[in-house]
Design a protein that fits this description.
Layout: H1 2-27, H2 56-72, E1 76-88, H3 95-99, E2 111-124, E3 130-133, E4 148-152, E5 158-160, E6 162-167, E7 172-176, E8 198-203, E9 211-223, E10 230-235, E11 248-249, E12 255-257
Antiparallel strand pairs: 1-2, 1-4, 2-3, 3-7, 4-5, 6-7, 8-9, 8-11, 9-10, 11-12
Length: about 260
């Protein structure tokens, strides 16, 4: 108790000394405080640099673009997948597995599962809730199907989805959700698309839902990676990881590509 009382007394003395020194320097000019500044005067521009009448066509284009985006975004979904990957701890040798490597046995405590999550995009194309996405969105790096597929709708609701079918060669997959209130987009004839056509790319890049980028069709009949058959569209619209499976949209709000 005596040591504690001495310590508290020491702290009080030091605090009092610091306070007195601060007051002394403040009164005798040894301590400088920031002086009060006169408010800075400024005048912001009150008129735009361009008269709206001079860019009436551009203003109309803005309104039309907003209407196009608003009409198609509710049909674009975020696709979230997960898959358990078995891993082995590096330490500890199991003698049973050493002598009988091909024998089945109960789960070893050293066996662990790593859950691998991934993000992608998709587009609703039927009133029954069918969704088109990319095959690599719903498979792992080895081409195996994921364990769970969830779809997040534009209103924030999450639905379980099942895989209806997939084609690895063209990298397309069809999912199905049970929701009678979905809004599908029409599939357009991509053969009618021409280089220079305006397009929108909508998706879920890096988890940012409903991201819209625009561009044009840069070229047609580009070869794919598997069979070199020229059937792909090339666009300069910005596409990032997570955009996979999202739609490429024409001026009429129709899907011309994935």
């Amino acid at each position: 108790m005596k040591n504690l009382a001495k310590f508290l007394l020491f702290v009080l003395v030091i605090s009092a000394g610091i306070s007195l020194l601060y007051d002394y320097r403040l009164k005798h000019g040894g301590l400088r405080l920031p002086s009060k500044r006169t408010p800075e005067k400024y005048t912001l521009a009150s008129e735009p640099s361009v008269d709206a009448k001079q860019i009436a066509s551009l203003e109309a284009l803005n309104r039309e673009r907003r209407a196009l985006v608003k009409s198609v975004v509710p049909s674009v979904v975020a696709v979230k997948t997960s898959k358990k990957i078995a891993i082995r701890r590096e330490y500890g040798l199991d003698p049973f597995e050493f002598f009988f490597p091909n024998q089945r046995r109960s789960r070893n405590p050293n066996d662990e599962a790593l859950v691998q999550n991934s993000l992608g995009s998709g587009v609703i194309v039927t009133n029954e809730g069918h969704i088109i996405t990319n095959n690599h969105v719903v498979t792992d790096r080895q081409g195996n199907q994921v364990d769970q597929i969830e779809v997040q709708l534009s209103d924030g609701r999450t639905k379980e989805a099942r895989l209806v079918g997939a084609d690895e060669q063209v990298d397309l997959a069809v999912l199905k959700i049970d929701d009678p209130g979905v809004k599908p987009l029409k599939l357009a004839d991509s053969d009618t698309v021409q280089a220079g056509d305006f397009v929108l790319a909508i998706g879920n890049p890096f988890g940012f839902d409903e991201t819209v980028t625009d561009g044009i069709i840069s070229s047609k009949m580009r070869p794919n990676r598997t069979d070199a058959f020229g059937d792909l569209l090339q666009t300069n619209a910005a596409i990032n990881p997570g955009n996979s499976g999202g739609p490429l949209i024409n001026l009429r709000g129709e899907v011309i590509g994935i």
